[in-house]
Protein backbone atom coordinates (compact mmCIF):
# COMPACT_ATOMS: atom_id res chain seq x y z
CA UNK A 1 0.00 0.00 0.00
CA UNK A 2 1.39 3.38 -1.05
CA UNK A 3 0.66 6.45 1.06
CA UNK A 4 1.52 9.94 -0.22
CA UNK A 5 1.94 12.87 2.16
CA UNK A 6 1.47 16.21 0.37
CA UNK A 7 3.27 18.72 2.56
CA UNK A 8 5.77 16.03 3.40
CA UNK A 9 8.37 18.49 4.68
CA UNK A 10 6.00 19.65 7.42
CA UNK A 11 6.88 19.58 11.10
CA UNK A 12 4.17 17.08 12.09
CA UNK A 13 4.99 14.46 9.43
CA UNK A 14 6.97 12.27 11.88
CA UNK A 15 3.75 11.77 13.88
CA UNK A 16 2.08 10.26 10.82
CA UNK A 17 4.99 7.95 10.01
CA UNK A 18 5.25 6.86 13.64
CA UNK A 19 1.54 5.92 13.65
CA UNK A 20 1.84 4.08 10.31
CA UNK A 21 4.79 2.01 11.54
CA UNK A 22 3.47 1.24 15.03
CA UNK A 23 2.93 -2.32 16.22
CA UNK A 24 -0.81 -1.71 16.58
CA UNK A 25 -1.29 0.05 13.22
CA UNK A 26 -4.56 -1.24 11.74
CA UNK A 27 -3.20 -1.39 8.21
CA UNK A 28 0.30 -2.01 6.88
CA UNK A 29 1.83 0.64 4.63
CA UNK A 30 4.58 -0.52 2.28
CA UNK A 31 5.73 2.91 1.12
CA UNK A 32 5.37 6.45 2.40
CA UNK A 33 6.20 9.09 -0.19
CA UNK A 34 6.86 12.63 1.01
CA UNK A 35 6.00 15.38 -1.47
CA UNK A 36 6.96 18.99 -0.81
CA UNK A 37 7.93 22.00 -2.90
CA UNK A 38 10.84 22.77 -0.53
CA UNK A 39 13.78 20.34 -0.90
CA UNK A 40 15.48 21.71 2.23
CA UNK A 41 12.48 20.87 4.40
CA UNK A 42 12.32 17.40 2.86
CA UNK A 43 15.99 16.87 3.80
CA UNK A 44 15.37 17.86 7.42
CA UNK A 45 12.25 15.73 7.85
CA UNK A 46 14.02 12.88 6.05
CA UNK A 47 16.85 13.06 8.63
CA UNK A 48 14.31 12.83 11.47
CA UNK A 49 12.53 9.91 9.84
CA UNK A 50 15.74 8.01 9.11
CA UNK A 51 16.32 7.84 12.87
CA UNK A 52 12.67 7.27 13.71
CA UNK A 53 12.32 4.32 11.34
CA UNK A 54 15.06 2.45 13.21
CA UNK A 55 12.84 2.09 16.26
CA UNK A 56 9.51 1.35 14.56
CA UNK A 57 8.20 -2.25 14.61
CA UNK A 58 6.94 -2.00 11.02
CA UNK A 59 8.91 0.73 9.24
CA UNK A 60 7.61 1.60 5.77
CA UNK A 61 9.90 2.29 2.82
CA UNK A 62 10.46 6.03 2.59
CA UNK A 63 10.72 8.02 -0.65
CA UNK A 64 10.53 11.77 -1.29
CA UNK A 65 10.39 14.29 -4.11
CA UNK A 66 9.12 17.61 -5.41
CA UNK A 67 7.18 16.47 -8.51
CA UNK A 68 3.46 16.21 -7.69
CA UNK A 69 2.37 13.96 -10.55
CA UNK A 70 5.23 11.57 -9.88
CA UNK A 71 4.30 11.53 -6.19
CA UNK A 72 0.66 10.69 -6.95
CA UNK A 73 1.38 7.88 -9.39
CA UNK A 74 0.08 4.56 -7.99
CA UNK A 75 -1.06 6.22 -4.75
CA UNK A 76 -3.66 4.32 -2.74
CA UNK A 77 -4.18 7.09 -0.18
CA UNK A 78 -3.17 10.75 -0.27
CA UNK A 79 -2.83 12.74 2.94
CA UNK A 80 -3.10 16.47 2.24
CA UNK A 81 -1.23 18.47 4.87
CA UNK A 82 -0.30 21.61 2.98
CA UNK A 83 0.52 24.86 4.77
CA UNK A 84 0.55 27.48 2.03
CA UNK A 85 2.67 30.40 3.16
CA UNK A 86 4.21 28.43 6.01
CA UNK A 87 4.28 29.62 9.60
CA UNK A 88 5.31 33.08 8.40
CA UNK A 89 1.91 33.28 6.68
CA UNK A 90 0.20 32.27 9.91
CA UNK A 91 1.94 35.13 11.71
CA UNK A 92 0.32 37.58 9.29
CA UNK A 93 -3.06 35.82 9.43
CA UNK A 94 -3.10 36.59 13.14
CA UNK A 95 -1.32 39.94 13.21
CA UNK A 96 -3.32 41.76 10.53
CA UNK A 97 -6.52 41.03 12.45
CA UNK A 98 -5.10 41.85 15.87
CA UNK A 99 -3.76 45.18 14.65
CA UNK A 100 -7.36 46.06 13.77
CA UNK A 101 -8.66 44.94 17.16
CA UNK A 102 -10.19 41.74 15.75
CA UNK A 103 -9.52 38.19 16.92
CA UNK A 104 -6.45 36.79 15.18
CA UNK A 105 -6.41 32.97 15.04
CA UNK A 106 -5.34 30.70 12.20
CA UNK A 107 -8.62 28.86 11.56
CA UNK A 108 -11.26 30.93 13.35
CA UNK A 109 -12.42 34.32 12.09
CA UNK A 110 -10.63 36.50 9.57
CA UNK A 111 -7.29 34.72 10.00
CA UNK A 112 -8.94 31.50 8.86
CA UNK A 113 -10.54 33.26 5.88
CA UNK A 114 -7.17 34.67 4.80
CA UNK A 115 -5.57 31.26 5.20
CA UNK A 116 -8.34 29.73 3.09
CA UNK A 117 -8.03 32.33 0.33
CA UNK A 118 -4.38 31.56 -0.31
CA UNK A 119 -4.83 27.79 0.15
CA UNK A 120 -7.90 27.08 -2.01
CA UNK A 121 -6.19 27.40 -5.43
CA UNK A 122 -3.58 24.84 -4.34
CA UNK A 123 -6.21 22.52 -2.87
CA UNK A 124 -8.18 22.57 -6.11
CA UNK A 125 -5.00 21.92 -8.10
CA UNK A 126 -4.18 18.92 -5.92
CA UNK A 127 -7.70 17.56 -6.38
CA UNK A 128 -7.47 17.97 -10.15
CA UNK A 129 -4.12 16.14 -10.29
CA UNK A 130 -5.48 13.32 -8.12
CA UNK A 131 -8.45 12.99 -10.48
CA UNK A 132 -6.05 12.83 -13.45
CA UNK A 133 -3.27 10.63 -12.01
CA UNK A 134 -4.81 8.39 -9.30
CA UNK A 135 -8.61 8.74 -9.47
CA UNK A 136 -9.23 5.67 -7.30
CA UNK A 137 -7.15 6.99 -4.40
CA UNK A 138 -8.74 8.22 -1.20
CA UNK A 139 -7.78 11.76 -0.19
CA UNK A 140 -7.71 12.51 3.53
CA UNK A 141 -7.35 16.24 4.13
CA UNK A 142 -6.02 17.79 7.31
CA UNK A 143 -5.17 21.03 5.57
CA UNK A 144 -6.73 23.91 7.51
CA UNK A 145 -9.23 25.45 7.53
CA UNK A 146 -10.51 21.91 7.10
CA UNK A 147 -14.18 22.53 6.31
CA UNK A 148 -13.59 25.09 3.56
CA UNK A 149 -10.71 23.17 1.98
CA UNK A 150 -12.63 19.89 2.01
CA UNK A 151 -15.67 21.55 0.45
CA UNK A 152 -13.54 22.93 -2.40
CA UNK A 153 -11.89 19.56 -3.05
CA UNK A 154 -15.22 17.72 -2.96
CA UNK A 155 -16.33 19.83 -5.94
CA UNK A 156 -13.62 17.98 -7.91
CA UNK A 157 -13.35 14.57 -6.23
CA UNK A 158 -16.74 14.05 -4.60
CA UNK A 159 -16.89 11.48 -1.81
CA UNK A 160 -13.30 10.30 -2.38
CA UNK A 161 -12.06 13.23 -0.27
CA UNK A 162 -12.77 13.43 3.46
CA UNK A 163 -11.68 16.10 5.92
CA UNK A 164 -10.48 15.21 9.40
CA UNK A 165 -9.86 16.97 12.69
CA UNK A 166 -8.81 15.41 15.98
CA UNK A 167 -10.68 17.83 18.28
CA UNK A 168 -14.21 16.28 18.09
CA UNK A 169 -13.19 12.68 18.75
CA UNK A 170 -10.72 13.96 21.34
CA UNK A 171 -13.65 15.62 23.13
CA UNK A 172 -15.59 12.33 23.07
CA UNK A 173 -12.63 10.46 24.55
CA UNK A 174 -12.21 13.02 27.33
CA UNK A 175 -15.91 12.80 28.17
CA UNK A 176 -15.75 9.01 28.26
CA UNK A 177 -12.78 9.19 30.59
CA UNK A 178 -14.60 11.71 32.80
CA UNK A 179 -17.61 9.39 33.22
CA UNK A 180 -15.29 6.43 33.80
CA UNK A 181 -16.77 4.45 30.92
CA UNK A 182 -15.64 0.81 31.13
CA UNK A 183 -13.35 -0.58 28.47
CA UNK A 184 -15.37 -2.41 25.86
CA UNK A 185 -18.60 -0.58 26.63
CA UNK A 186 -21.04 0.06 23.80
CA UNK A 187 -20.71 3.76 22.99
CA UNK A 188 -22.73 6.07 20.77
CA UNK A 189 -22.84 9.84 20.69
CA UNK A 190 -24.38 12.87 19.00
CA UNK A 191 -21.95 15.51 17.75
CA UNK A 192 -22.85 18.16 15.19
CA UNK A 193 -21.49 21.38 13.71
CA UNK A 194 -18.82 22.50 11.29
CA UNK A 195 -15.05 22.32 11.62
CA UNK A 196 -13.88 23.95 14.87
CA UNK A 197 -17.48 24.78 15.74
CA UNK A 198 -19.53 21.89 17.13
CA UNK A 199 -21.08 20.37 20.23
CA UNK A 200 -21.26 16.96 21.88
CA UNK A 201 -24.95 16.69 22.78
CA UNK A 202 -25.32 13.12 24.03
CA UNK A 203 -22.98 10.34 25.15
CA UNK A 204 -24.59 6.93 25.50
CA UNK A 205 -22.61 4.25 27.33
CA UNK A 206 -24.28 0.83 27.29
CA UNK A 207 -27.56 2.50 26.37
CA UNK A 208 -27.52 5.23 29.05
CA UNK A 209 -26.88 8.89 28.22
CA UNK A 210 -24.12 9.88 30.64
CA UNK A 211 -23.82 13.48 29.49
CA UNK A 212 -26.48 15.05 31.80
CA UNK A 213 -24.81 13.62 34.90
CA UNK A 214 -21.40 14.73 33.66
CA UNK A 215 -22.62 18.29 33.12
CA UNK A 216 -24.03 18.36 36.66
CA UNK A 217 -20.78 17.22 38.28
CA UNK A 218 -18.13 19.92 38.79
CA UNK A 219 -15.45 17.40 39.77
CA UNK A 220 -16.07 15.28 36.67
CA UNK A 221 -16.20 18.35 34.40
CA UNK A 222 -12.78 19.38 35.70
CA UNK A 223 -11.44 16.36 33.84
CA UNK A 224 -12.67 17.74 30.50
CA UNK A 225 -10.38 20.42 29.08
CA UNK A 226 -13.17 22.01 27.05
CA UNK A 227 -15.30 22.51 30.17
CA UNK A 228 -12.39 24.18 31.93
CA UNK A 229 -11.79 26.47 28.94
CA UNK A 230 -15.38 27.67 28.63
CA UNK A 231 -16.45 27.35 32.25
CA UNK A 232 -18.72 24.73 33.87
CA UNK A 233 -21.64 27.15 34.25
CA UNK A 234 -21.60 27.94 30.51
CA UNK A 235 -21.46 24.31 29.37
CA UNK A 236 -24.35 23.55 31.72
CA UNK A 237 -26.28 26.46 30.23
CA UNK A 238 -25.65 25.00 26.77
CA UNK A 239 -26.60 21.50 27.84
CA UNK A 240 -23.69 20.23 25.72
CA UNK A 241 -19.92 20.00 25.66
CA UNK A 242 -18.47 22.42 23.08
CA UNK A 243 -15.50 21.89 20.80
CA UNK A 244 -12.56 23.74 22.35
CA UNK A 245 -12.57 26.31 19.53
CA UNK A 246 -15.97 27.55 20.75
CA UNK A 247 -13.84 29.44 23.30
CA UNK A 248 -13.16 32.05 20.62
CA UNK A 249 -16.87 32.52 19.91
CA UNK A 250 -17.89 32.54 23.58
CA UNK A 251 -15.12 34.88 24.75
CA UNK A 252 -13.97 36.91 21.72
CA UNK A 253 -13.34 40.06 23.76
CA UNK A 254 -11.21 38.24 26.32
CA UNK A 255 -9.38 36.15 23.73
CA UNK A 256 -8.54 39.19 21.63
CA UNK A 257 -7.31 41.12 24.66
CA UNK A 258 -5.06 38.26 25.74
CA UNK A 259 -3.67 37.80 22.26
CA UNK A 260 -2.98 41.51 21.81
CA UNK A 261 -1.28 41.73 25.21
CA UNK A 262 0.90 38.66 24.66
CA UNK A 263 4.54 39.10 23.78
CA UNK A 264 4.04 36.79 20.80
CA UNK A 265 1.10 35.37 18.89
CA UNK A 266 0.79 31.61 18.51
CA UNK A 267 1.99 31.99 14.93
CA UNK A 268 5.09 33.84 16.06
CA UNK A 269 5.80 31.15 18.65
CA UNK A 270 5.53 28.39 16.07
CA UNK A 271 7.49 30.33 13.47
CA UNK A 272 10.35 30.69 15.95
CA UNK A 273 10.05 27.11 17.25
CA UNK A 274 9.88 25.45 13.88
CA UNK A 275 12.30 27.79 12.15
CA UNK A 276 14.78 26.98 14.90
CA UNK A 277 14.08 23.27 14.51
CA UNK A 278 14.87 23.19 10.78
CA UNK A 279 18.03 25.25 11.31
CA UNK A 280 19.23 23.06 14.18
CA UNK A 281 18.75 19.84 12.26
CA UNK A 282 20.50 21.27 9.19
CA UNK A 283 23.43 22.15 11.47
CA UNK A 284 23.48 18.82 13.32
CA UNK A 285 21.58 16.01 11.54
CA UNK A 286 22.93 13.45 14.03
CA UNK A 287 20.44 14.77 16.64
CA UNK A 288 17.53 15.18 14.23
CA UNK A 289 15.04 12.98 16.07
CA UNK A 290 15.95 14.23 19.54
CA UNK A 291 15.62 17.82 18.35
CA UNK A 292 12.20 17.10 16.80
CA UNK A 293 10.94 15.42 20.00
CA UNK A 294 12.05 18.35 22.11
CA UNK A 295 10.34 20.94 19.92
CA UNK A 296 7.23 18.78 19.53
CA UNK A 297 6.77 18.54 23.32
CA UNK A 298 7.02 22.31 23.59
CA UNK A 299 4.51 22.79 20.78
CA UNK A 300 1.92 20.48 22.37
CA UNK A 301 2.29 22.00 25.84
CA UNK A 302 1.63 25.53 24.55
CA UNK A 303 -1.38 24.71 22.32
CA UNK A 304 -4.19 27.29 22.76
CA UNK A 305 -2.17 28.91 25.55
CA UNK A 306 -4.19 32.13 25.23
CA UNK A 307 -7.22 30.28 26.59
CA UNK A 308 -5.41 29.21 29.76
CA UNK A 309 -4.52 32.28 31.75
CA UNK A 310 -2.29 32.21 34.82
CA UNK A 311 -3.84 32.95 38.18
CA UNK A 312 -4.65 36.61 38.62
CA UNK A 313 -6.35 39.14 36.41
CA UNK A 314 -6.56 38.91 32.65
CA UNK A 315 -4.91 41.40 30.34
CA UNK A 316 -8.21 43.21 29.97
CA UNK A 317 -8.88 43.40 33.68
CA UNK A 318 -11.48 40.62 33.78
CA UNK A 319 -11.37 37.78 36.25
CA UNK A 320 -10.61 35.07 33.70
CA UNK A 321 -14.08 33.55 33.74
CA UNK A 322 -14.37 30.76 31.25
CA UNK A 323 -10.66 30.10 30.98
CA UNK A 324 -8.65 27.34 32.57
CA UNK A 325 -5.46 28.28 34.33
CA UNK A 326 -1.92 26.97 34.12
CA UNK A 327 -0.28 24.46 31.81
CA UNK A 328 -2.04 21.78 29.77
CA UNK A 329 -2.49 18.54 31.67
CA UNK A 330 -0.88 15.36 30.39
CA UNK A 331 -4.29 13.78 29.72
CA UNK A 332 -5.22 16.78 27.53
CA UNK A 333 -2.29 16.10 25.21
CA UNK A 334 -2.80 12.32 25.07
CA UNK A 335 -5.22 10.63 22.70
CA UNK A 336 -3.50 10.06 19.39
CA UNK A 337 -3.98 13.34 17.52
CA UNK A 338 -4.95 13.89 13.91
CA UNK A 339 -2.57 11.22 12.66
CA UNK A 340 -4.51 8.56 14.58
CA UNK A 341 -7.81 9.76 13.09
CA UNK A 342 -6.26 9.63 9.60
CA UNK A 343 -4.88 6.14 10.14
CA UNK A 344 -8.19 4.84 11.53
CA UNK A 345 -10.04 6.27 8.52
CA UNK A 346 -7.52 4.81 6.07
CA UNK A 347 -7.67 1.41 7.73
CA UNK A 348 -11.47 1.30 7.67
CA UNK A 349 -11.83 2.07 3.95
CA UNK A 350 -8.99 -0.25 2.95
CA UNK A 351 -9.72 -3.25 5.18
CA UNK A 352 -13.50 -2.95 5.50
CA UNK A 353 -13.38 -3.17 9.31
CA UNK A 354 -16.03 -0.65 10.46
CA UNK A 355 -15.02 2.32 12.56
CA UNK A 356 -16.96 5.25 13.99
CA UNK A 357 -15.40 8.71 13.95
CA UNK A 358 -16.25 12.37 13.46
CA UNK A 359 -15.42 13.59 9.95
CA UNK A 360 -15.86 16.56 7.62
CA UNK A 361 -18.42 15.40 5.07
CA UNK A 362 -21.32 16.79 3.02
CA UNK A 363 -24.42 17.56 5.09
CA UNK A 364 -26.55 15.60 2.61
CA UNK A 365 -29.67 15.99 4.72
CA UNK A 366 -28.01 14.42 7.78
CA UNK A 367 -27.80 17.82 9.51
CA UNK A 368 -30.96 19.82 8.79
CA UNK A 369 -30.64 23.54 8.26
CA UNK A 370 -27.48 23.39 6.12
CA UNK A 371 -27.22 23.03 2.31
CA UNK A 372 -26.82 19.41 1.28
CA UNK A 373 -23.44 20.04 -0.38
CA UNK A 374 -22.09 22.09 2.54
CA UNK A 375 -19.29 20.33 4.43
CA UNK A 376 -20.18 19.79 8.08
CA UNK A 377 -18.73 17.75 10.93
CA UNK A 378 -20.70 14.64 11.89
CA UNK A 379 -20.28 11.16 13.37
CA UNK A 380 -19.76 8.66 10.56
CA UNK A 381 -19.40 4.93 10.16
CA UNK A 382 -16.55 4.08 7.81
CA UNK A 383 -16.12 0.70 6.11
CA UNK A 384 -15.05 -0.82 2.81
CA UNK A 385 -17.98 0.82 1.05
CA UNK A 386 -16.92 4.30 2.12
CA UNK A 387 -18.03 6.93 4.61
CA UNK A 388 -21.60 6.87 5.94
CA UNK A 389 -22.64 9.97 7.92
CA UNK A 390 -25.11 9.47 10.75
CA UNK A 391 -28.36 11.36 11.00
CA UNK A 392 -28.18 13.64 14.04
CA UNK A 393 -30.68 15.73 15.93
CA UNK A 394 -31.20 19.14 14.32
CA UNK A 395 -29.26 22.05 15.71
CA UNK A 396 -31.61 24.71 17.08
CA UNK A 397 -31.65 28.30 18.22
CA UNK A 398 -28.33 29.98 18.85
CA UNK A 399 -26.31 26.89 17.87
CA UNK A 400 -27.98 26.65 14.46
CA UNK A 401 -27.73 30.40 13.93
CA UNK A 402 -24.00 30.46 14.66
CA UNK A 403 -23.25 27.48 12.42
CA UNK A 404 -25.35 28.93 9.58
CA UNK A 405 -23.60 32.29 9.83
CA UNK A 406 -20.11 30.77 9.78
CA UNK A 407 -21.04 28.44 6.91
CA UNK A 408 -22.52 31.39 4.95
CA UNK A 409 -19.20 33.22 5.36
CA UNK A 410 -17.27 30.14 4.20
CA UNK A 411 -19.44 29.64 1.13
CA UNK A 412 -19.10 33.28 0.13
CA UNK A 413 -15.35 32.81 0.38
CA UNK A 414 -15.47 29.66 -1.76
CA UNK A 415 -17.37 31.55 -4.44
CA UNK A 416 -14.97 34.48 -4.15
CA UNK A 417 -12.02 32.15 -4.67
CA UNK A 418 -13.61 30.34 -7.61
CA UNK A 419 -14.53 33.61 -9.37
CA UNK A 420 -11.59 35.71 -8.09
CA UNK A 421 -14.09 38.26 -6.78
CA UNK A 422 -12.86 40.85 -4.30
CA UNK A 423 -16.43 41.94 -3.59
CA UNK A 424 -17.48 38.43 -2.58
CA UNK A 425 -14.36 38.11 -0.44
CA UNK A 426 -15.28 41.38 1.30
CA UNK A 427 -18.78 40.01 1.91
CA UNK A 428 -17.29 36.80 3.32
CA UNK A 429 -15.24 38.76 5.86
CA UNK A 430 -18.20 40.98 6.74
CA UNK A 431 -20.51 37.98 7.22
CA UNK A 432 -18.31 36.30 9.79
CA UNK A 433 -19.66 36.64 13.35
CA UNK A 434 -16.25 37.67 14.72
CA UNK A 435 -16.03 40.68 12.38
CA UNK A 436 -18.14 43.51 13.77
CA UNK A 437 -18.19 46.03 10.92
CA UNK A 438 -18.36 46.14 7.14
CA UNK A 439 -15.67 48.83 7.22
CA UNK A 440 -13.40 46.62 9.33
CA UNK A 441 -14.05 43.75 6.92
CA UNK A 442 -12.78 45.91 4.04
CA UNK A 443 -9.70 46.92 6.03
CA UNK A 444 -9.04 43.28 6.89
CA UNK A 445 -9.21 42.19 3.28
CA UNK A 446 -7.04 45.10 2.14
CA UNK A 447 -4.55 44.33 4.91
CA UNK A 448 -4.27 40.68 3.96
CA UNK A 449 -3.89 41.49 0.27
CA UNK A 450 -1.05 43.88 1.07
CA UNK A 451 0.70 41.54 3.54
CA UNK A 452 0.21 38.15 1.92
CA UNK A 453 1.07 37.63 -1.75
CA UNK A 454 -1.03 34.45 -1.82
CA UNK A 455 -4.17 36.35 -0.90
CA UNK A 456 -3.54 39.00 -3.53
CA UNK A 457 -2.78 36.37 -6.17
CA UNK A 458 -6.00 34.52 -5.36
CA UNK A 459 -8.12 37.58 -6.20
CA UNK A 460 -6.15 39.65 -8.73
TrEMBL record:
Gene Ontology MF terms in the entry: hydrolase activity, hydrolyzing O-glycosyl compounds; metal ion binding; oxidoreductase activity, acting on the CH-OH group of donors, NAD or NADP as acceptor
SUPFAM superfamilies: LDH C-terminal domain-like (SSF56327), NAD(P)-binding Rossmann-fold domains (SSF51735)
Residues of the site described as Increases basicity of active site Tyr: 106
Binding residues for substrate: 90, 144
Active site residues per record: 166, 245
Cofactor needs: NAD(+)
Record has Methyltransferase as a keyword: no
Co-factor binding comment: Binds 1 NAD(+) per subunit.
Start and end residues of each Glycosyl hydrolase family 4 C-terminal domain: 191-435
GO biological process terms held by the UniProt record: carbohydrate metabolic process
Keywords attached to this entry: Cobalt, Glycosidase, Hydrolase, Iron, Manganese, Metal-binding, NAD, Nickel
Region (Disordered) residue spans: 301-331
Residue numbers binding Mn(2+): 165, 196
Family: Belongs to the glycosyl hydrolase 4 family.
Name of the protein in its database record: 6-phospho-beta-glucosidase
Amino acid sequence: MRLVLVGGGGFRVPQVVEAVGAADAAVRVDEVHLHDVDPARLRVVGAVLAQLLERLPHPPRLTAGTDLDEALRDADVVFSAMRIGGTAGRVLDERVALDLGVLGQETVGPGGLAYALRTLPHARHLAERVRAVCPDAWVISFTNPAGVVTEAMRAVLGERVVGICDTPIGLVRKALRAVDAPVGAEVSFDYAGVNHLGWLRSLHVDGVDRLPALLADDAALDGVEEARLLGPDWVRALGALPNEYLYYYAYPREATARLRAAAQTRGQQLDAQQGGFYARVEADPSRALATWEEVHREREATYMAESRTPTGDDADGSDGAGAASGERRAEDVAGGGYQRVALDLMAAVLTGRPATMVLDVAAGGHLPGLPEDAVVELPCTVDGDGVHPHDVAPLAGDMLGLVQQVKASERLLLEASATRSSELAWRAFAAHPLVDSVAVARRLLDGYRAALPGVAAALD
